[in-house]
Amino acid sequence: MPKAVKKSTKIKNFVIDTNVILYSPKALETFDDNNIYIPAIVLEELDSFKKGVDLNGYNAREFIRKIEDYRTGGDLLKGVKMESGATLFISFHDRESKESVPEEFSGRKNDNLILGIAKKLQSESKNETIIISKDVNLRVKANALGIKAEDYYHERMGSFTENKDDTLYVPDSYINTMYQESELPMPDYIYGINMEDFKPRINEYFVMKSEVDEKKGVLVKYFEDEGEVKGFKRVTEYENIFGISPANRKQKYLMEALLDPDIDVVFAIGIAGTGKTLLALCAGMYSVLNEGTYKKVLVTRSPIPMGRDLGYLPGNIAEKLDPWLKPIYDNLDFIIGNSNKELRDGKDGIYYKSQMNNITIDYLKASNILEIEALTYIRGRTLIDTYVVIDEAQNLSPHEMKTIITRAGHNAKIVFTGDLKQIDNPYLNEWDNGLINASEKFTQARFRHCTTVFLDKGERSRLATEAARVL
């Protein structure tokens, strides 16, 4: 085995795991002028994904095409210079790399082959060697071997999701004027806040209270227009939409955002039972059926199972999707049940309820008012005059989020709902998933047609709320 050499503090060697590429096929462009090593076994793994019709298949094909472009420009074994300034290498597992790891890691398992390549590179190169992987176990084994290992942090967000007080105390006269007007410029002062440091998100919601009387208050949202005028707009409080009314002020924030045609994308983030999906579907159906703002509602959700997967499901595409979409149908049944309650209160009401729900949902689908689609097949579509609801968006990667949002055509609205504490994708966490990533990037861009609403009060039941808190 070659002797260890002194490390350089300049250029680094990054050994990339397969899951990083499936997470972001453009990941190689983010390593500046360092050395990037792709183990040959990673290419083998990507080869097994490339024929898939899902987003993993697309990402694998996208990355392989990029590798082919670099291959034509030089020898990947000796290193090819990339546009980003990095140098790209392909590395093979050989006898020396096999001897670089303990006997416990000497098998043909892919992770062990990556460890062997990284350990050999570490011993031969003057540059610091780092494994980049979204697999926690691989990072642990790497550290046990004295190899530095890191998660892929390029898409990782900060503490944007931390709950903060949404209460603002302002002059009593400002509250009085806000009661009369729909919007006002910024107040002269906000109690306890340095106005120069006050930089809320565009379309961020607050409860504004009088500094002399806490019982006097109004719900508002912050705005900035094209002329850089800043201020607050009074929130429209909706009641009895299909028999459903917001149960707390943050649900009022969300309902207002969902029904505001000037907001193109809504990120509804909250714990289980806060009403995210129910309100999104309710607002979507109302926008189509009652207001005519859009022509149809398209609903889909991330098809990642909780717990052990049951394997392939029998039947046609509709039958395969049915188990994944049960939560959607449950919410639609509840909405339709509320809207038709007065028709069922009579003789044989129980029987009529069942028939009414089934016929109504089937009618909406047959009339192209309601479309329930597999997320896998949304690529390539242009969504026009459509109200889109994406449920369980916390399981999507940043690349998947980009794919979905760029489907939006003229007069389209997209609503993403998700719970950052219920991520089932093994390679995502609450800081780097697509939901929070897209939310923060739109916020940082100061896009005026976007908002994020955080919900923290469960309304499903006291049991569900307590379970979300303590378990």
Describe this structure in words.
The protein is globular. The protein folds into three domains: 8-150, Rossmann fold (3-Layer(aba) Sandwich), CATH 3.40.50; 156-235; 248-470, P-loop containing nucleotide triphosphate hydrolases (Rossmann fold, 3-Layer(aba) Sandwich). It is α/β, with parallel strands linked by helices. The strands form three sheets. It has a six-stranded mixed beta sheet. It has a six-stranded parallel beta sheet with strand order 14-13-15-16-12-17, with helices on both faces. It is built from 16 helices and 17 strands. β5 (127-132), α6 and β6 form a beta-alpha-beta unit. The longest helix has 18 residues, at 349-366. In the N-terminal section; belongs to the PINc/VapC protein family.
Number of helices, where a helix is a run of at least 4 consecutive DSSP H or I residues: 16
Q: Could you list the spans in which at least 5 consecutive residues all have pLDDT below 50?
A: 1-8, 306-310, 342-359
Radius of gyration: 26 Å
Please tell me the CATH architecture of the largest domain by its name. 3-Layer(aba) Sandwich
Going across the major beta sheet, what is the strand order? 3-4-2-1-5-6
Question: Mean of the pLDDT scores?
Answer: 84
Q: How many domain units? A: 3
Q: Major sheet, described briefly?
A: 6 strands, mixed
Helix content: 25-40%
Number of strands: 17
CATH names the topology of the largest domain as Rossmann fold
Shape: globular
Q: CATH H level of the largest domain: which superfamily? A: P-loop containing nucleotide triphosphate hydrolases
CATH class of the largest domain: Alpha Beta
Beta content? 15-25%
Keywords: ATP-binding, Nucleotide-binding
Family: In the N-terminal section; belongs to the PINc/VapC protein family.
Domain PIN: 12-140
Organism: Geovibrio thiophilus
